[in-house]
């Protein structure tokens, strides 16, 4: 019955914006000003109500509404019909006067205006603005708790309705969604989050916003657990609170709903996705509370919503690329903002403890969480996955790549270094993907290097014809030569620039050996032989240190100049030139 009432309310309140003939007129500026200021007297005067009529209208039963313009026109009565028809005007945002009053204030004068407008035009209670919002959405978004209660009472009014019918009408009104799939509770959550971020009267405003949540939940305890509409961006109130970083509001929703909470989020995500995403917030202490809190609810079965359990949430994939919460945790752990270590366990470790099998669930491209961690350069996440599930090392994506291939492709040196140093991971060092590539780049494809070496050594040919070797690998060889030429130019340019500095240092250090500070002694000076340095006194530590530093600088700069001159000559092999600058450490990555 509640669902039917909700659908009926939605149909009645659907904005006829698609039909230009049904476009609503602009609201009268004087009526708009009176509504925004909460001036009920001015509002009555503009609507053509005298004092006696105003009292009757305020005290009238809601179902005894004023006749419509068409009905009154047929009866020949034009006074009240003009007043009621003038309430059909909307603002540029499509908001009626009741929307404006609900959003502008919560005091008695605004509530009087709301009551006056409602009794003259009950249809405005379920009218939608351009965003598909009812006046209840506006009141909740503004944090007007008393106005929320008034509007809810209006929705349940009517002497001809039974108590059950009133309850159904109230629930249906509370569960109306806007175009984004949000109810008034979503707006109340946002208002509470905004109040928490304000410095002025922070506590007072947050309490008022939480009061809005309390009144909405008191009217419908299941409001935070209703299914989301078929809208991609629709999210549950709990997801919204966690994504905004308001853990206190999330806990408040949990208490008020007694665990009846929807965990759904936009695009197929759930609250675990939101909790993991929020871990990148600068406020570490608060951010790391979200994921443990939700996991504790799931572990102890405190969430009573049907279909919500640990297995389902931890393995749920989103609609974008099929990422589970563990994919997200593993990839986000490599962000620079998360470089500092937390005192508690990481999000990856927490999710692995909750559901170890999620480490074996791929995304839409066949990538497992360990591939996501390696691509992001998250060494801690890689270690956590390997410690918990050691056989994750051999998992391959849709292209046949291991996590080491992903790390090499993204140039994540930390992950590659860890694999090379771990004896237990030596088996994946030379594994090939579907293209036959190992962890090396195509420029250092070992198959090409081995075949070329065998050809140079005149080894017997196997199944492949030696004369077709270059033809078979023509594309790779051409690309290799082109890249080698470009690299040679870069090495020459770098050597020339660096040689300028080394030559300058060599010249200065050589000259300083003959122009010592303090000068030299003359023939008539006391304290030493003529021509000796003035500062060269017996036991002078400063002079000895200067001579030693100058000699060391001269030798080092001279050697550097020689190596740079060698590296700048294109006639020598690229490998030897590259080693003369960067040393032997990276020489094994160069092509032959």
TrEMBL record:
A GO CC annotation given for this chain: plasma membrane
The ANK repeat ranges on this chain: 131-163, 365-397
Region (Disordered): 1-25, 308-328
Protein's membrane topology: Multi-pass membrane protein
UniProt keyword annotations, A-Z: ANK repeat, Membrane, Repeat, Transmembrane, Transmembrane helix
Subcellular location(s) of the protein: Membrane
PANTHER family: ANKYRIN REPEAT-CONTAINING PROTEIN ITN1-LIKE ISOFORM X1, PROTEIN PHOSPHATASE 1 REGULATORY SUBUNIT
Record's protein name: PGG domain-containing protein
Organism (species): Oryza punctata (Red rice)
């Amino acid at each position: 019955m509640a669902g039917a009432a909700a659908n009926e309310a939605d149909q009645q309140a659907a904005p006829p914006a698609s039909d230009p003939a049904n476009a609503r007129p602009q609201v009268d500026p004087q009526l708009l000003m009176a509504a925004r200021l909460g001036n009920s007297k001015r509002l009555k005067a503009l609507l053509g109500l005298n004092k006696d009529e105003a009292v009757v209208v305020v005290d009238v039963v809601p179902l005894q509404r004023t006749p419509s313009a068409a009905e009154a026109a047929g009866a020949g009565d034009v006074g009240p019909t003009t007043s009621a028809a003038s309430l059909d005007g909307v603002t540029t945002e499509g908001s009626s006067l009741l929307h404006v009053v609900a959003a502008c204030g919560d005091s008695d004068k605004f509530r009087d205006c709301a009551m006056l407008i409602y009794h003259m035009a009950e249809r405005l209670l379920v009218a939608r603005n351009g965003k598909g919002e009812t006046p209840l959405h506006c009141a909740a978004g503004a944090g007007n708790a008393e106005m929320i209660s008034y509007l809810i009472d209006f929705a349940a009014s009517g002497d001809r309705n039974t108590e059950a019918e009133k309850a159904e009408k109230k629930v249906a009104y509370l569960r109306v969604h806007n175009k984004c799939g949000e109810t008034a509770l979503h707006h109340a959550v946002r208002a509470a989050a905004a109040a928490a971020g304000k410095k002025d009267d922070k506590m007072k405003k947050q309490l008022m916003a939480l009061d809005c949540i309390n009144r909405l939940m008191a009217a419908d305890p299941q409001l935070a657990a209703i299914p989301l509409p078929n809208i991609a961006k629709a999210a549950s109130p709990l997801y919204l609170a966690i994504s905004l970083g308001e853990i206190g509001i999330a806990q408040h929703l949990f208490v008020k709903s007694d665990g009846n909470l929807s965990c759904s989020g936009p695009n197929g995500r759930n609250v675990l996705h939101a909790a993991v995403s929020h871990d990148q917030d600068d406020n570490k202490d608060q951010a790391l509370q979200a994921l443990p809190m939700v996991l504790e609810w799931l572990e102890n079965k405190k969430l009573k919503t049907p279909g919500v359990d640990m297995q389902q949430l931890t393995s749920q994939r989103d609609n974008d690329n099929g990422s589970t919460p563990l994919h997200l945790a593993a990839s986000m752990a490599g962000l620079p903002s998360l470089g500092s270590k937390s005192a508690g366990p990481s999000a990856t470790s927490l999710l692995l403890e909750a559901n170890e099998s999620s480490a074996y669930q791929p995304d839409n491209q066949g990538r497992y969480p360990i591939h996501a961690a390696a691509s992001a350069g998250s060494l801690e996440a890689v270690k956590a996955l390997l410690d918990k599930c050691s056989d994750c090392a051999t998992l391959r994506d849709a292209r046949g790549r291991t996590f080491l291939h992903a790390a090499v492709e993204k140039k994540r040196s930390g992950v590659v270094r860890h694999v090379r140093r771990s004896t237990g991971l030596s088996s994946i060092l030379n594994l090939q993907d579907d293209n036959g590539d190992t962890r090396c780049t195509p420029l250092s494809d070992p198959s090409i290097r081995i075949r070329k070496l065998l050809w140079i050594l005149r080894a017997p040919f196997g199944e492949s014809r030696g004369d077709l070797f270059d033809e078979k690998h023509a594309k790779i060889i051409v690309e290799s030569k082109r890249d080698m030429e470009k690299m040679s130019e870069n090495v020459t340019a770098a050597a020339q620039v660096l040689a300028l500095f080394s030559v300058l240092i060599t010249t200065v250090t050589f000259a300083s050996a003959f122009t010592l500070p303090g000068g030299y002694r003359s023939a008539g000076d006391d304290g030493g032989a003529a021509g000796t340095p003035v500062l060269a006194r017996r036991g002078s530590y400063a002079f000895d240190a200067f001579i030693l530093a100058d000699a060391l600088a001269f030798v080092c700069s001279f050697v550097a100049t020689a190596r740079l001159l060698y590296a700048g000559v294109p006639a020598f092999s690229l490998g030897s030139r590259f080693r003369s600058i960067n040393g032997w450490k990276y020489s094994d990555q160069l092509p032959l």
